[in-house]
Design a protein that fits this description.
Blueprint (H helix, E strand, L loop, with lengths): L8 H11 L9 H4 L3 E5 L9 E8 L3 E8 L6 E5 L4 E7 L16 E10 L2 E8 L3 E9 L7 E9 L2 H14 L25 E7 L15 H19 L2 E5 L9 H10 L4 E8 L9 E6 L6 H11 L1 H4 L14 H25 L5 E9 L11 E8 L3 H7 L2 H25 L1
Parallel strand pairs: 10-11, 10-12, 12-15, 13-14
Antiparallel strand pairs: 1-2, 2-3, 3-9, 4-5, 5-7, 6-7, 8-9, 13-15
Helix pairs in contact: 4-10, 8-10
Length: 421
């Protein structure tokens, strides 16, 4: 072939289909020759779905083609720091298999998933400042369904930022992406409750998959564990239990904190699973809040976890600043002490139940732990990059055993907390 590339028969058919597009597509003949890399999802299709995501790359442009079950409304915008292109769609099912990211072109990575009730999101990490040269919908033709086509071209940083500023100016006071207000802090009097309130936070979700193992994704592993822990705690009859998410959906970090505060939680437990370049590293760890990290690894993990909103395509331009005052500082001193106490109980209870990371209790500046009036911990169940940990974390037997041990630690914590008071 003149392009010097090898095509599968399916790719050839798709290229022919694009070559046969009607004139309304407004494409130049030279760009129509872009080779397309295709991955289709298996399984049953929902009423609204994206069945395939494909890329086409030339030296001038990078094309993204989404095959759709029907014509859908969409909204596309760009974000800076880092450079991202964000596409919002109605809630859809996505391909089960993520397409390989192009080895060249203007795309570094693509993520997608449920972003909120009734909304799905695709986030494209760009290699630098880009401009959406064209975006258009094509109707079914040549045996292919509706297609949404996005053409990206390079631009200057100044032009990139100018377009973002123009978009924000044209939509005043609307925000761009799921801005979450801060719940005002007022000290609450201690009241006796019929049951202790526990909020369990399954990290990541939806458009933010979190860490990856050989097969497992963090967002699925931690959701399964959160549900198992909630079930175990409810069976005791002692607790009112809430989940920040009970399905594969993205929840902004600040909203997770707000949920704990709105329920007047007595304990907030955020569940995660880690990844690291050293595949031999394994074991559970638990983190409490501190603006000074216990070590470099804890600091790096906090930076990674705190990027969750960026990964999901949140625009921080309309987010209110973190509130800092003396009341919050005083409240956090007490909750930090309680969080540290609970972390110590968890470490002791988990000995012999699962592998523990050296220096199991660590601390760093995790945003999700910043409720000033709710004792909060973040538990990393293990490392998905370790084959033994990944196997255990994917096992219902291990999940139930560790959930039971964590439930016992929670029981013990509230007994000691009651004795202290």
């Amino acid at each position: 072939m003149t392009l010097g590339l090898v095509f599968t028969s399916q790719a050839v058919l798709r290229l022919r289909a694009l070559l046969a597009l009607p004139a309304v597509a407004l494409l130049t003949l030279s760009f129509l020759a872009i080779p397309l890399l295709a991955v289709s999802g298996g399984g049953a299709m929902a009423s609204e779905s994206v069945s395939s995501i494909r890329y086409g790359v030339t030296s001038q442009r990078t094309r993204i083609v989404l095959e759709l079950s029907e014509k859908l409304d969409y909204n596309l915008f760009t974000l800076d720091a880092p450079h991202r292109v964000v596409l919002d769609l109605p809630a859809v099912t996505w391909p089960e298999q993520k397409p390989d990211d192009p080895s060249n072109g203007l795309i570094k990575n693509v993520r997608y998933g449920l972003f909120g009730p009734g909304k799905s999101r695709l986030v494209v990490d760009a290699t630098g400042p880009v401009e959406v040269q064209k975006i258009f919908m094509l109707g079914p033709s040549a045996g292919f369904p509706y297609r949404l086509v996005i053409d990206l071209v390079e631009t200057t940083q100044a032009s990139f930022l100018a377009r973002i500023a123009k978009r924000k100016a044209s939509t005043p006071n609307k925000g761009v992406a799921n801005a979450v207000p801060q719940v005002p802090f007022t000290p609450k009097p201690k009241t006796k409750k019929a049951k202790r309130v526990i909020v369990i936070d399954a990290g990541h979700g939806g458009v933010d998959p979190g860490a990856h193992g050989r097969k497992a994704q963090e967002k699925n592993i931690v959701l399964a564990f959160a549900k198992a822990l909630a079930s175990t705690l409810k069976r005791t009859g002692k607790y009112e239990v809430h989940l920040t998410r009970d399905r594969d959906i993205y929840i902004p970090l600040r909203k997770r904190v707000n949920i704990a505060r709105q329920y007047d939680a007595d304990l907030f437990v955020s569940i995660h699973a880690d990844s690291i370049s050293r595949s031999a590293v394994r074991g559970m760890s638990i983190y409490t809040l501190s603006e000074t990290a216990s070590d470099k690894e804890a600091a790096a993990l906090a930076r990674k976890e705190n990027r969750s909103d960026i990964i999901a395509g949140i625009d921080f331009g309309d987010q209110p600043a973190e509130v800092a005052n003396i009341l919050i500082d005083l409240a956090q001193r007490e909750t930090k002490n309680l969080s540290v106490k609970f972390a110590g109980i968890v470490v002791n209870e988990m000995k012999g139940k699962t592998r523990l990371l050296d220096r199991t209790h660590r601390f760093a500046g995790f945003r999700v732990l910043k409720a000033p009036d709710v004792p909060s911990v973040l538990i990393e169940l293990g490392f998905l990059t370790n084959k033994y940990d990944e196997r255990e974390l994917s096992s219902s037997k291990w999940r139930n055993k560790v959930a039971e041990a964590l439930s016992q630690a929670i029981n013990q914590y509230f007994v000691t907390a009651a004795l202290d008071n």
